[in-house]
Design brief:
The protein has a single domain, classed as Chalcone isomerase (3-Layer(bba) Sandwich). By secondary structure, it is an alpha+beta fold. The radius of gyration is 16 Å and the shape is globular. The longest helix is centred in the first third of the chain and has 16 residues. It starts with a helix and ends in a 15-residue tail after the last helix. A hairpin with a 5-residue loop joins β3 and β4.
Length: 163
Amino acid sequence: MRKKYVVFSALLTLFAFSSRKPGTHNVPVPYPEGFRNWVHVKTGLIGPKSKIFAQFGGFHHIYANGPALIGYQNGKFPEGSVIVFDKLEMVEDSSGNISEGKRKWVDVMVKDAAADSTGGWSFEEFTGNSRTDRAVRNQAIVKCYNCHAVRKVNDFVFSELKE
C-alpha cells in the first residue's frame, strides 16, 4: 500500500509542476498539500541550550515525495522532487515533558532545472499554518540558497534519509 501511495504522490507532484515552463522558476512554489502523508525522512529537535534556538528552536520534521526518495537513495534528486521542512514550536511543561507546539513555518524545496541561479531548486516558506503567506518569494538566493550552497555535493540537500 505504501508503494502505491508513493507512486501516486509522485504522479501528482509531476502533474502539479508539469505546467511550469523552462526559465520560469519564478512561478510560485505551490503549498505541498498532504505532505504529512509522504515519506517521513527524519525529525530533529533544537532545544533551548543551542546557540541557534532563537531562530531554529523546536521540532523539524522532514518529508519527501516519491521522486525525492530517489534522490535520497542515489544522491541526485530528479526533476519534480519535493522536500518539506515542517517546523513546530517546542513546548516543555513543568515536569520537563516536551511536545510539539504551534507550527512556525513550512519550508519547501522543489527540484526545478529552470532554477539555475539556485542550484536547480525552487524554494518557498509558508508561515504558520497558512497555505498562502509566503516569506521567501523572489529572495530565494539570500534566504535559502546561500545556506544550501555548502551542500552542493549532496545536490544542495542537508537531510539524509533515516532508515
